[in-house]
């Protein structure tokens, strides 16, 4: 049950936990950079005029428009002996 909390969503996008952590943290980094640029732009409007919006556009393209979807993993079917062993190993 606890493992499912960490693996259900990554599995739903055909990624392992570590692959999903890498992808998600890279988005977090660029979102933080866009936030920083937007705050600086708020104070100094002549700086970072399009930086935050360009970062958001690139992230959208990466996440939605041009997302590379890995093929689903093929899980081999278990034999009758494996199923019996799994059910006996409570």
Give a written overview of the molecule.
The chain has four helices and no strands. It has 90 residues and is mostly helical. The longest helix has 27 residues, at 17-43. It has helices at residues 2-12, 17-43, 51-65, 80-88. It has a domain at 28-67.
Annotate the secondary structure layout.
Layout: H1 2-12, H2 17-43, H3 51-65, H4 80-88
Helix pairs in contact: 2-3
Features:
90 residues, mainly alpha, elongated
- Segments where pLDDT lies below 50 for 5+ residues? none
Classify the oligomer: single chain
Give the class from helix and strand content and strand pairing: mainly alpha
Q: Rg, please?
A: 21 Å
Secondary-structure element order, N to C: HHHH
Largest pleated sheet: none
Strand segment count? 0
Strand content: under 5%
In short:
It is built from four helices and no strands.
